[in-house]
Amino acid sequence: MNFSSCSTKYLEYLKFQKMYSTNTILSYATEIQHFTNYLLIEEISSYKEISYPIVRGYLVYLHQSHLSKSSINHKLSSLRSFYSYLLKMNIVEDNPFLLIKAQSEPKRNPDFLYPEEMVELLDSIDCVTPLDKRNKAMLELMYASGLRCGEVVNLKLKDIDYDNLDLKVMGKGNKERIVPFHEFAGKCMQEYLEARIILIKNQEEHGFFFVNKNGTKLTNRGVQNIVDRICYQYDATKKIHPHTFRHSFATHLLSGGADIRMVQLLLGHEHLSTTQIYTHVSKEQLQAVYDHTHPRIHGNK
Questions:
Q1: What's the pLDDT at 234?
Q2: 206 flagged as catalytic
Q3: Of 74, 75, 80, 148, which residue is the catalytic one?
Q4: Which end of the chain lies in a sparser environment, N or C, as judged by fewer CB atoms within 10 Å?
Q5: Fold designation for 115-282
Q6: Catalytic residue chosen out of the listed positions 172, 206, 213, 221
């Protein structure tokens, strides 16, 4: 199968089976075309011919193009997913991109995903089986509301208000708070509710929202296993854990201009200093604004 046929089928798969957004699909198409152009320069005519040395050569080519480490990692992640599809369809025999580690970037503390990374991760989750729908609803809600792992497993059916798009959460120290969620997360949760009936059919109703394959209450370890499995399939080189969704939630709100005290309330932090650890991410944005607007900087150019 030639380059064009492979990429076309993959993009159709993303659109009609994975239900990815148009922008996400365009991003994948761009990264695949960039890699294909490199292969043509190297006189390689088939994705089946790709081996580890060729991928290493492509990595060197990316560095020589003076791309940022973030851009390189995005390309590698997209191609890793593409090759996972090709392997699944028996078009190739292995996925050499699994052997390439992500390029080290400045350490993020705490760990978080950038918005485009989070969207790609959530969009990568299949919604075929009841467990797929549970996983999709759970991770969407964790990112939508910034929930701790323990708050996820202890969430009950009666705590969720779909009309007002909020839920009652029992946080640390048995402190209750009300947290909003968005319509997209609510839609995923309601789709999971129908699947939950199938999962819980052999159990008495216990009221907990998220259940395991046996219909009983999900555990913290169960959430960890689900996150590990989904995130490994998304990008085996990234270290993503349940708290990454909470960290990303707070980071993205603050970077988007949310008041830190409002974020403190949403997260259920007792002290504002705990919330302030998330403000570090905005430093890059502040520096960019400063460089772009300060009169002295532009006056000296």
A1: 87
A2: no
A3: 148
A4: C
A5: hpI Integrase; Chain A (1.10.443)
A6: 172
Question: How far apart are alpha carbons 214 and 20 in whole angstroms?
Answer: 30
Are the CB atoms for 278 and 263 separated by under 8 Å? yes
Please confirm, yes or no, whether 177 is among the known catalytic residues. Answer: no
> H-helix or E-strand containing 179?
strand 176-180
- The verdict on whether 108 is a catalytic residue reads no
Residue range(s) occupied by CATH 1.10.150.130 in the chain: 3-99
Q: What is the pLDDT of residue 138?
A: 98
Its pTM surpasses 0.85: no
For residues 24 and 226, give the distance between their C-alpha atoms in angstroms, rounded to a whole number: 23
Q: Would you call 246 a catalytic residue per the annotation?
A: yes
> Radius of gyration of the chain from Cα atoms?
22
Q: What is the pLDDT of residue 116?
A: 87
What is the CATH code for 3-99?
1.10.150.130
- The closest alpha carbon to 190, from 129, 122, 132, 133, belongs to 133
**Active-site residue identified among 136, 246, 247, 252:** 246
243 catalytic residue (yes or no): yes
Q: Quick check: is 172 catalytic?
A: yes
How would residue 301 be classed by pLDDT, with cut points 50, 70 and 90?
A: very low
